[in-house]
């Protein structure tokens, strides 16, 4: 399946592809486009749009104080408590005013690399965080 979001990904738009690839769609392909082209490109590519916060037609988006990662958890009925804890970390790192929700949120910073390279480099971070949180919950 194809998934599409805004280019120049940051925390939530890296965490969401990780979540999708690991728990929703192992064969997922991700497309990154300018925000103004998100809906048109989604229709043309037959892709599911996500994290288009200024575009009300995008269903997988921030919801209230919660980030898109948490919307995916909700919509795909992912009820693993470890994923929900990870969602708090993503929210704290991504949503202004939510920084204190999880102490681990402070560790995220932007790198000057492409969206695809950011996913490749940061997926292992989410794998490690997930394993750590899962072990901690036991």
For the sheet with most strands, the description reads: 3 strands, parallel
Shape assignment: globular
- Strand line-up of the largest beta sheet: 2-1-3
Number of β-strand runs: 3
The separation of the N and C termini measures: 34 Å
Provide the structure class: mainly alpha
* Count of structural domains: 1
Mean pLDDT: 94
- Roughly what fraction of the amino acids lie in strands? 5-15%
The stretches of 5 or more residues where confidence is low (pLDDT under 50) are none
Radius of gyration: 14 Å
Order of helices and strands: EHEHEHHH
Q: Share of helix among residues?
A: 40-55%
Description:
- The protein is mainly α and 138 residues long.
- It has one domain (2-137).
- 49% of the residues lie in helices and 9% in strands.
- The chain contains five helices and three strands; from the N terminus they run E-H-E-H-E-H-H-H.
- Helix 1 runs parallel beside helix 3, helix 1 packs across helix 5 (115-137) and helix 4 crosses helix 5.
- The protein is globular.
- The N and C termini lie far apart (34 Å).
Indicate the topology.
Layout (H helix, E strand, L loop, with lengths): L1 E5 L4 H14 L4 E5 L4 H8 L2 E2 L18 H8 L5 H14 L20 H23 L1
Parallel strand pairs: 1-2, 1-3
Helix pairs in contact: 1-3, 1-5, 4-5
